[in-house]
């Protein structure tokens, strides 16, 4: 099955690389937000259930520390008998749309990195390290800013809401990015064929996008 899927992806990518990447990104973005919403629902059910875990002591709690300092527990978990919260299809659509829109930009960016830092037999690791450095120092801050801006505007927010989101969660999210993505991108640029680089990032990014989704929704709350 894996071999069949890889073969199909390669054939579609050879014919229409950008469109194939856009569809793949949208699907994986949808998977990531579905994971995030499921985690939120399970966590809220566990916390509100009589005799359930104490959110202050439960080590399995999903905590977004920098945001939690600004939002009280009562605001994140309001008194309600509606358990779990309903699945937000509009939010799912926003994440899929963001992945779809960002794919051409990622495609161009990765192509640019491949051209200026080509992998050679004698300089494969150093070229991958240079690509990673460029990606994390230039693209990562801009991409993260684009994510929060797009989500805020798609949720109906304006300049004030964008400013507040940047003040509250941009820096903590960027710090978290630097704990995860340099190692992932080094593996990606060193080992992955070009057609699999963006899908690899998107697949690993399911957990990262779920984190961003939780961060974004916590700030919204």
TrEMBL record:
It is found in: Membrane. It is a multi-pass membrane protein. InterPro entries: Mpv17_PMP22 (IPR007248). It holds the Pfam family Mpv17_PMP22. Its main location: membrane. PANTHER family: PEROXISOMAL MEMBRANE PROTEIN 2, PXMP2 MPV17, VACUOLAR MEMBRANE PROTEIN YOR292C. It comes from Aureobasidium pullulans (Black yeast). This is Integral membrane protein, Mpv17/PMP22 family. Belongs to the peroxisomal membrane protein PXMP2/4 family.
């Amino acid at each position: 099955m894996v071999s069949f899927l890889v073969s199909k992806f390669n054939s579609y990518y050879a014919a229409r690389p950008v469109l194939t990447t856009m569809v793949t990104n949208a699907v994986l973005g949808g998977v990531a937000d579905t994971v995030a919403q499921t985690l939120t629902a399970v966590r809220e059910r566990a916390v509100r259930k009589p005799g359930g875990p104490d959110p202050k002591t439960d080590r399995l709690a999903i905590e977004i520390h920098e945001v939690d300092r600004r939002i009280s527990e009562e605001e994140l978990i309001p008194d309600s008998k509606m358990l779990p919260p309903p699945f937000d299809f509009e939010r799912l659509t926003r994440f899929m749309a963001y992945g779809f829109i960002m794919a051409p930009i990622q495609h161009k960016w990765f192509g640019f990195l491949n051209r200026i830092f080509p992998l050679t037999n004698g300089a494969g690791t150093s070229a991958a390290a240079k690509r990673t450095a460029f990606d994390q120092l230039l693209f990562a801050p801009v991409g993260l800013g684009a994510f929060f801006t797009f989500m805020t505007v798609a949720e109906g927010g304006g300049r004030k809401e964008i400013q507040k989101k940047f003040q509250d969660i941009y820096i903590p999210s960027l710090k978290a990015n630097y704990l995860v993505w340099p190692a992932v991108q080094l593996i990606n640029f060193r080992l992955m064929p070009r057609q699999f680089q963006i899908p690899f990032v998107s697949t690993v990014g399911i957990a990262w996008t779920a984190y961003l989704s939780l961060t974004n929704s916590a700030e919204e709350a």
